[in-house]
Design a protein that fits this description.
InterPro entries: Bacilysin_H2HPP_isomerase, Cupin_2, KdgF, RmlC-like_jellyroll, RmlC_Cupin_sf. This is Cupin domain-containing protein. It holds the Pfam family Cupin_2. With 103 residues, the protein is an all-beta fold. The protein has one domain: Sandwich (Jelly Rolls). Helices cover 0% and strands 65% of the residues. Strands 1, 2, 3, 4, 5, 6, 7 and 8 form an eight-stranded antiparallel β-sheet that branches. A hairpin with a 2-residue loop joins strand 5 and strand 6.
Length: 103
């Protein structure tokens, strides 16, 4: 269980840091309903995403792909990305280095 707070990041979307170190951070993003949005954005961190549950349509640069439970992928530094929730679920993201803005 994480001691970090659950933070609302959008309508029906929350974020919770699960573990953290200056070189790496693990974060759970929970999407509570179909249509919830992870807004398009970019950052300097390399990100890996693991779909724990649910289904999502991701935009990764110019490419869209649908992902579901067990899928995983890496997002390079500064690549624009975001998602739309197709079925409620949880994404587990790792960031290197850690996202200080999430602390």
């Amino acid at each position: 269980m994480s001691d970090f707070p659950i933070v609302t990041t959008g309508e029906d979307v929350t974020r919770q840091v699960l573990s953290d170190h200056p070189a790496l951070m693990v974060v759970a993003f929970r999407f509570g309903k179909q249509g919830a949005i992870g807004a398009l954005h970019d950052h300097v961190h390399v990100q890996s995403t693991y779909v724990e549950s649910g289904r999502f349509r991701f935009t990764l640069g110019e490419v869209e792909r649908e992902v579901g439970p067990g899928d995983s992928f890496v997002i390079p530094s500064k690549q624009i990305h975001g998602c739309v929730c197709l079925e409620p679920g949880t994404l587990v993201d790792c960031f290197a280095p850690r996202r200080n803005d999430f602390l």
